[in-house]
Amino acid sequence: MIADHLLGRVLRAVIRTGTLEVIDAVGRRQTFGDGGSPRVAVRFADAGAVRELIRDPELKLGELYMDGRLLIEAGSLDDLLRLCLETTGGDRALMPGRALAVLRRAFRRLAASNPVSKARRNVAHHYDLDGRLYDLFLDADHQYSCAYFETPDASLEEAQLAKKRHVAAKLMIEPGMSVLDIGCGWGGMLLYLATFAGAGPMRGITLSEEQLATARRRATARGVDPDTFALEDFRQTTGRFDRIVSVGMFEHVGASSYDAYFEACARLLAEDGVMLLHTIGRTGVPDFTNPWITKYIFPGGHLPTLSEILPAIERSGLAVADIEILRLHYAETLKAGARASWPPGTRPRRSTTNASAGCGNSTSPSPRRPSATRTWWCSRSS
């Protein structure tokens, strides 16, 4: 009863637009908001679910939904997340006390470190899964990062191909140039650069055994040496490369390892080399990644701001030559993936699909919240 009362007080204060109806475990109903859209009704399956949500809303909202203890009676998961993100105070509105929030943030700072000893385990958590899962929402080339929509009606396949062309153009690859792909995934980007950009000696590194096996199979099928791809941490890579590309990997590095990352890139990049880094970015001030994302999607990872990345680049001796903010391209990418794996009328249960819906909302524009970003960096050695 106390938990229900506290939740009601908080929701009454923060839900200013849209409509949220909350049904407790015994059927009592409360309605919050201005009666407008989005209109959502949720039901708690048990009283304990309310207490858990109040103690840690950032983590428990997703977990309770996944466990079937928070049920959506009207509207959709997309509507619920949009309503939550547009509340006054955003995703911290339910924090019960400043002291608890400070302790939780301190713990998350420790958990966000990603040294070599943890990096492979963290990557395996997300990528060493049955490849059929990724078949559900990725393009045929398994590009697991923001696509580039040259036209509003482009398909996911077309937009991912456009992304690869865009990367190749920014890298300014000349025939025979050596290329290092840090976080090569299933090999699609590096194989594209070899086939269509005339790249010469190549090396692709990943910490995922599943990705490595797939990349090597694909290389063999295209007449490329499968040993082009290796199970290797960027801190252990040696050699010098004319071009370095890293797409969708930097989110896994962790803020405490930014200096080590860019120092390694500076060491590996030729004197007249070019590096391109493609990463999810955060708007506003530096903050910690949502704990649900950290636990289920990117353990050890961090979504950075410009102010976090630029100083680390400068300290490494690299110079920033170009920054491009893709912004809503990522929202469109996630929407396309969600449509593929989550047909109308079905309810997602797997956490990856839940993440697609959540991230799709967080990258969509709001009248009170700037859009999240997908950022491109093009760095040259000084």
Automatic annotation (TrEMBL):
Compositionally biased region (Polar residues): 351-361
BP GO annotations: lipid biosynthetic process; methylation
Pfam family, one: DUF7884
Segments for region (Disordered): 339-382
Residues annotated as domain DUF7884: 27-85
Keywords associated with the record: Lipid metabolism, Methyltransferase, S-adenosyl-L-methionine, Transferase
InterPro entries: CFA/CMAS, CMAS, DUF7884, SAM-dependent_MTases_sf
Ranges of compositional bias, category Low complexity: 362-375
The protein's Enzyme Commission number: 2.1.1.79
CDD domains: AdoMet_MTases
GO molecular function: cyclopropane-fatty-acyl-phospholipid synthase activity
Family the UniProt entry places it in: Belongs to the CFA/CMAS family.
Protein name, as recorded: Cyclopropane-fatty-acyl-phospholipid synthase
Native source organism of the sequence: Methylobrevis pamukkalensis
